[in-house]
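User: Here's a protein and a ligand (NAP). What would the complex look like?
Assistant: Let me lay out the input and then the predicted complex.
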Amino acid sequence: MLAATMNRVDPDDPLAGLQVGEHPEPTAPEGWSVVTVRAASLNHHDIWSLRGHGPRNAPLPRVLGSDVAGVDESGNEVLIHSLINDPAWTGDEVLDPRISMLSDFHDGGLAERIAVPTRNLVPKPAGLSFEHAACLPTAWLTAYRMLFVLAGATAGTTVLMQGAGGGVATAVIMLGKAAGVRVWVTGRSEEKRERAVALGAAAAFPPGARLPERVDAVIETVGAATWAHSMKAVRAGGIIVVAGMTSGSHPPLDIERVYLANLRIVGTTMGSRHDLEQLVRLVVDQNLRPPIHEVIPLAETQAGFQAMLAGDLFGKLVARP
Ligand SMILES: NC(=O)c1ccc[n+]([C@@H]2O[C@H](COP(=O)([O-])OP(=O)(O)OC[C@H]3O[C@@H](n4cnc5c(N)ncnc54)[C@H](OP(=O)(O)O)[C@@H]3O)[C@@H](O)[C@H]2O)c1
């Protein structure tokens, strides 16, 4: 079958290790199912894997892709919760010490077919296209957990999102607006700032801009480039929720401000299956449709990741086998 695989690690030139070509068909051990992929979206996670941030002893070549929607062997339309847990684990999936993400150890979904634990299948609502459903299990799930479960945002909360056009950023804007949250964003171009406001952001600022007032919560996935601004932007007693480091992972930390302002800094990875089910319900109830930058054929995955590396996207890139 056709698949986008990681064949080797290259920290400086991640796409050098990416190949789109033939890969063996998946097989499903007991308790697993084969899903025919109808759409899979691209994520920075795939680029981090190609740079070598994934598990060191994982097999190569390995299919990339953690955001998948398709049809299972019984003909059910599904999306896939992409956290693979120890079979004995019973608590919140994200807290399993033996957790991995689809494509970390097991082949991911940028392929024609994928094998996953059957318990990871979540019914896809009929009114949601495969392309939109394939945006939910990674960036949108992470945004949902950051905003509602960790930041506790409700109607009237003010949240600063660092970034305007990214997968997580566009999800935070739309989910926040649907819940009555005042979402402010920073965006690197006037065009992205305007598009963010059109999508539902209450205001958009250039990176590092002085805000009209401090915010209750900051959603951070950019890292080094925005960290100092996030620390200044949050009010006393507020929270910074961190899920990424696109621009670098070692910004200075003003410890004095953390304790004097009683800040909380909370890290998070993805979300539980329950979070994903809640997210799907919210998306359907509020008739939300994740913004899609472009739908591309699976064969053009390389060009898609190039656009992601260049920061040219507004919303998700979705590949169709
Ligand atoms: N921990 C988790 O579970 C989890 C889950 C999902 C994503 N992530 C991570 O979160 C990050 C964002 O994911 P995504 O899906 O939203 O990625 P994306 O779609 O590629 O978006 C990148 C975002 O970063 C913003 N950005 C601002 N300054 C930047 C800079 N100097 N360099 C690069 N980007 C900058 C961009 O802002 P503009 O709008 O101005 O371009 C854009 O909003 C990635 O690093 C990803 O690995 C983590």
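Summary: The mean pLDDT is 97.
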